[in-house]
Design brief:
alpha+beta; Helix Hairpins; SH3 type barrels; Alpha-Beta Plaits; five-stranded antiparallel beta sheet; three-stranded antiparallel beta sheet; 19% strand; elongated
């Protein structure tokens, strides 16, 4: 009798829960197959939009995990398992983890924003958060800069994504600004001609936009000229430094004085 009762109970359970179990298994298998297709489609979309290689696997994994959690909750609900308490516990745990990792999550969100909208890319020279350097790596939580003297600067992405940042490499050309002074009494026209000749000789200074030379200031001890020329971004610093040297040498050869602040001391004898 005991065996018959056990068999009867097993049959009743199979009749009651069998269809639900079979349906849940079918839904689970079909759902996993659909999630796989959706994940691949999302990966192709990211490929077409040329998203960062460091962001693509993370987003694919995140989308896949979220869809699978939703699928498992649905399957468990089909089996008659009460999910309200489970979802409440899951939400509370998520809130606690979010509060504990608030700074890390901010950096993560900032990294996602940077990798999607690309305000800068690897190799760009930027000025942000009080630091300047070339972007070496863009990671999920921080960005690594290399300074001109080969220091490594690690900047959290939260600040980079929400504050002001200057990207010196985003445009193909840049304007170089110089200020050169001559002494009072020197020939202004000659100085302008010398400056123009030096700029024209340098093939790295572009003809368009046009070179600009003008007297900018009658200073305390000098007449100052402003010179503005456009160059390719990669040539900026080499043109800037070489022009300073060439102007100094040529002004001396042409008899143009480069003044410096002086103080006259008069001694009166009683």
């Amino acid at each position: 009798m005991d065996t018959e009762k056990i068999v009867n109970q097993v049959v009743e359970i199979a009749v009651s829960y069998g269809p639900k179990l079979i349906g849940a298994i079918v839904i689970l298998l079909v759902g996993l197959w659909i999630i796989k297709l959706l994940t691949k489609a999302f990966g192709r979309i990211m490929e077409k939009r040329k998203m960062s290689d460091s962001l693509k696997p993370f987003l694919r994994g995140l989308i896949s995990a979220l869809l699978k959690v939703m699928l498992f909750i649905t399957v468990l609900g089909m089996l008659g398992i009460e999910m309200t308490s489970f979802i409440a516990i899951l939400g509370a745990a998520g809130l606690a983890i979010g509060l504990a990792l608030s700074g890390t999550l901010q950096n993560f969100a900032g990294g996602v924003i940077i990798l999607i909208f690309k305000p800068f890319k690897v190799g760009d020279y930027i000025d942000a958060q009080g630091y300047s350097g070339s972007v070496s790596e863009i990671l999920i939580f921080n960005t690594i800069l290399k300074t001109l003297d080969n220091k490594t600067i690690i900047i959290p992405n939260a600040g980079l994504s929400t504050s002001s940042m200057t990207n010196y490499s985003s445009e193909k050309t840049r304007r170089v600004d110089w200020t050169f002074g001559i002494g009072y009494g020197d020939d202004i026209d000659k100085a302008k001609e010398v400056l123009k000749t030096l700029c024209d000789k340098d093939s790295r200074i572009l003809k368009d936009p046009k070179l600009f030379i003008a007297v900018s200031e009658l200073a305390d001890s000098s007449v100052n000229f402003v010179v503005r020329g456009w160059v390719n971004a990669a040539d900026y610093w080499s043109v800037f430094f070489e022009m300073n040297e060439n102007v100094y040498k040529t002004f001396n050869e042409e008899g143009l004085n480069i003044p410096y602040p002086q103080m006259d001391v008069h001694i009166q004898k009683n």
